[in-house]
Each structure stands twice: as structure tokens, then as C-alpha cells.
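Format notes (please read before filing issues)

Several people have asked whether sequences and C-alpha cells are stored in separate files. They are not. Every record keeps both together, in the order shown below: the sequence lines, then the C-alpha cell lines. Line labels are part of the format and must not be stripped during preprocessing.
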Amino acid sequence: MPIQTFYKRYQFAPNECLERDLLGAFTRRQYTANTLLTGPNQPNDRLFFVEVGAVQGYYIDHAQTEVTFAFAAESEIIMSPINLFGSHAPQPGNYLRTLEPVQTLELFHTDMRRLQQAHHAFALLSLQLTEEAVGLREERARTLHNPNPLSRYYWFLERHRNLSGRLKISTIASYLGISRHTLSRLRSEMAHNGA
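Then the structure lines:
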């Protein structure tokens, strides 16, 4: 089960009481592809643990262009960036959308806070997840400063290898801050060179 994979990755071993509280707090949901999980005027009131499928986090920039800021696939968590620091107010322009049929376990902000207060191990896990999310965003920001689009794409393939064949070129290009045309050319060159 993906949640067990997640526990193992973070060396998280909940005791029986915490395991029971977690099972009671998570809600399992299924969504079709291209479903908005959060959007304008909707509260960012939960995190999504992806059991099956892939989810994209994006915002609309000043030119009304969609800019991808995050992905999550099996055994990964995604939430709106503002949620990392405890706010769950609606955020104009921030979206989470399913890219495939998705099954999630969802944890509402209020339940997360309750679990953090009641269980030290869960509070430590929450801190670790926040640090990892901030670290990935910083890593992506550094990657976007690299003027070489091929280096950016190699970073994507290394960091998100489980998604490379599942996403549209335009979605990956948006995430890497390069044009769809440039990414398409790079992929063709790599295929031609056997990379």
C-alpha cells in the first residue's frame, strides 16, 4: 500500500494510537483526470497524499499564463504553497489539478494541527515534510537560474523520473521555465543521440 511506502521513506513508525488517529483523520477520495482540487476562492484547507495518479500545482502569472510549481505522484504529498506555513485562506491564482485519474488520502488542516498537538512523532514528520517541500522549491528555483535548458531537463528527469513519460511536454516546459518548442527539440535530440 502506498501509505506504507511513504512511512518507510520517512522512517515513520506510528504507534498504535497514532495509527488509529491517522486512519480516522484521512479521507480517501477518487478524482477523474483534469479535476481541480483547489482553485480560486476555495480554501486551501488540506494536504493530498497521492495513492494513485499524478497532480499538478500551478498558478496563473501576470500574463495569464499557467506556470507549474509542483508535481506529486504515487506516495507523494502535495498542497498549496501557502499551506506549508499554516494558512488555509483562499489564494487567488493557485491551483491543484489532477493530471490522471487520481486516488488520494486527504488530511484537513484542522486534523493535521490536532495530530501535531497530540502526537510528537507526527509533529516531527510534519516538520520534515515542510522542510522537504521548501527544499524542493529552492532546488527548482536554483535550476531555473541555470541558463542551459538541457541541464534543467536533466534535473527534471533525475528528480521526477516517475513522471517523465506521463506528462504533456507543455506541462514539463512550464515547470522548467522553457518553451514547449525548446523542450520538444531537446527531447528529439536526446532520442536521436540515444540518451
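For reference, the curators noted about this record: The first strand starts at residue 27 and ends at 31. The chain has a mean pLDDT of 88.
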